[in-house]
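Lecture notes, structural biology module. Today: joint structure prediction for complexes of two components.
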Amino acid sequence: MSKDKSEYLINRKDNQYEVVIGLEVHAQVTSESKLFSTSSTKFGAEPNTQVSLVDAALPGMLPVINEYCVKQAIKTGIGLKAKINKRSVFDRKNYFYADLPQGYQISQFKDPIVGEGKVILDMPDGQKEVGIERLHLEQDAGKSIHDLDPKYTFVDLNRSGVALMEIVSKPDLRSPDEVNAYVKKLRSIMRYLGTCDGNMQEGSLRADVNVSVRKKGSKEFGTRCEIKNVNSIKFMQMAIEYEANRQVDLIEDGQSIDQETRLFDTKKNETRSMRSKEDAHDYRYFPDPDLLPLEVSEDFIEKLKLEIPELPDEKKKRFIEKFKLSPYEATILVSDNETSNYFENVIKKSDVKLATNWIIGELFAALNEKNLEITESPISAGNLSKLINLIKDGTISGKIAKTVFEHMMEGDKDPKKIVEEKGLKQESDPKALEALIDKVIDDNREKATEYKSGKVKLFGFFVGQVMKVSAGKANPQLVNEILKKKL
Amino acid sequence: MSDITKQSLSELIKNIKDKKLSSTEVTKAFVERSEKSKELNAYVTEDFSAAIDKAKKFDENPNLDLKLPGIPMAVKDLFCTKNVKTTAGSKILNNFTPTYESTVTQNIWNEGAILLGKLNCDEFAMGSSNETSFFGCVQNPIDKDLVPGGSSGGSSSAVAAQLTPITIGTDTGGSIRQPASFTGIVGLKPTYGSCSRYGIVAFASSLDQAGPMAQNVRDCALLHEVISSYDEKDSTSIDFKRNNYVKELTNNIKGKKIGIPKEYRVNGMPKEIEDLWKKGIDYVKDCGAEIIDISLPHTNYALPTYYIVAPAEASSNLARYDGVKYGFRADGENLIDMYEKTRSEGFGAEVQRRIMIGTYVLSSGYYDAYYLKAQKVRKLIKNDFDEAYKKVDAILTPSTPSSAFKIGEKTNDPVSMYLNDIFTVPVNLAGLPGISIPAGHDAKGYPLGLQIIGKAFDEQNLLNIAYAMEEKINFKNKITDWWIK
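The predicted structure, tokenised, for the full assembly:
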């Protein structure tokens, strides 16, 4: 495939525009308690039931760093093959808002905990490396609820103080498809690490999307707009598409682009200006005097490295080398830890090739249809493994296996039992098959004669007849062999 | 005993332990005197009947092994006290009652002391005369219409007037030492990180430190021993080995090297301050210590540095008082309007001035020129002390450039007010311990203080020098009880 084919360009008259995208992903750290307090982070609790004195910014309350969140951020940094900064600093980002109790967000500005790293994307035309600028820890704000009362806004502080990792990419992304692959890969890495559950419905993963356009071949970046707080990959893609086209139209029209912050309206599928550069907040960042600089030792980092599991890229490599999977198959199977675990459990006791086909084919289709995750699969890895062995040892044919599979989807039943109960066992007894075949030849004397006189195409007809009479249970290989002899 | 309130903390403890006095008798005596002393305006909140109840309870089953057995004590209204209103001297917290206790006050109650009430202070501890308090000026018991210093003005007045046997204040740029000096009492600002800031209404986080204010050095050492503790709830709290400050207290300071910084001889310093300092040097020599001239070259920059760093932190620390969650709220047309009205009406002029200064110095485009530069100078000031401490064990200076001034005298001249802190501010910037002890009187009979600055975590040495000097100085406060009719 040539590189040009997959290039995402916006065409206007004689001009072709390239889209330049950078993402600031906000990933909620998987942690029992908040970044600077001991309150629970559990999703879905009654409003304001998970709020400590610190989270509500009562007078005299002080933040104390949650070591677990620090470990999670460092692990994520290791997963992004990034530089871990042994010294980082928490700063205050000052602004007033009703759901920001302190009047400032504790974040990391000049000295983040994680520096430059990279993420490898598996695109249809090959791999692409996306640079990571930095990862820093920060507090989430609370939630303002505007629609409960005509006059008042209500505030829920359950999220206030929850730990977030802001992962900033370099402006290396060039299309909505790459954004899709990037967010999925990032999510996959963090789920492997157990540092973020990546649950976009619950807001565990959101992104600010920076978009600019430039004429193809240009080396200069265009003026960018930042689309705030987009909470699904689909919306990110839609927002980019809209925003890039809007910018191209402005340029084509001879106008300039204002650097500004925009919002994506998911109902109207358009981005709208939120505030211009002139109105941008002056956050008055300065080091939080309530917190000392965060210092971690080499030893601390080395110990965390030992806790890092095999990550998608390495696992993919292993699957290809050890199990002879195609890159395509391997990419699919390692996309999340649960799938690859499932796969590895199935092949513990069964054929790799068959297992790969059955998981990527039948199982994914069936799960998709029922809208289930692999962890919710009605068929356990053990039973799928048994099914594959029944095919392999000739107990059932591939076709019968599909019937058995359907029964298994109804409830996790041992395929052997299904085969027995439903009498689906493949007929591989040569004597029984001979009798069956004799009867079919007898019933179709004329066709047999035609075959013998050279109409070889009729062989398929006889196979079909035998399978039909045996209700699909006849071992197709044996049927072939015996038929050849008899005819 | 009729003169209970005249007794020092150490005497009271001894009498309670010897069962010559009950906690109830002691508490009632201080309550009575406090009741008669309303004109001083030292209290913001009185908790007298609860205090007497607690004292009675203590007497029913007295635990005399505690360090402060049944001792009544009023505290600065900057310390959050559970179920007792805590205002920080501000209208914006006038209706605020914490559900929690500061670590420092909790340490005090754990040793058997009893809360008498909350003492007046400058609004959010921003002031040097207690005149910025929403609850009005505090009278210095030394003389009518004289300021008691600030920001711990209610505390200094209450100890000097014997409304409480002892108290705690907070010191961000001199707020314990300057009022102690103005009222003729002892005030210690401990090393930054000695006393937990948890539950203390924050002014400037990197400078704030709680400390004892007492009638004498021994009492001061005792209370310091109680309040100094490592606290996991304060990330800037430091886990170091704390002394038994009272047990280890000694007046033997023979051979100690005391530095005299030439830069503290500021222009226009009154002669009586100069003389006091000279007298102080003589006392130290009398004690067998050695005097060494030293230089702290960046002293001149301390005050401007302080007035960048402290307001910067304050502007952020005070952002939480927005009318949304607790405290005073003024209704507004919308959120922004509510913020503006709440903060305009809720904060007084000095607090607003410092929020403005702090917001300005942190603004983009000014940050490097002000805040960052100030942080660099702060480091230089600290280096000055580090250098000096290679040669000396402690440093002796005046506590303030003048004695107490009249109420209203400096209210319209903030810079002249700020100059009050010229000798105390460098100590906070360097995070060091400093103590002010009463050392003499000026021509008007107003008390004057000397400051001893120590090495970090070297409070014991500091207290010992103060203890030795105290003996030589033999200071007597001239208080006439003019306010009691």
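Point to remember: The first strand of chain B starts at residue 43 and ends at 46.
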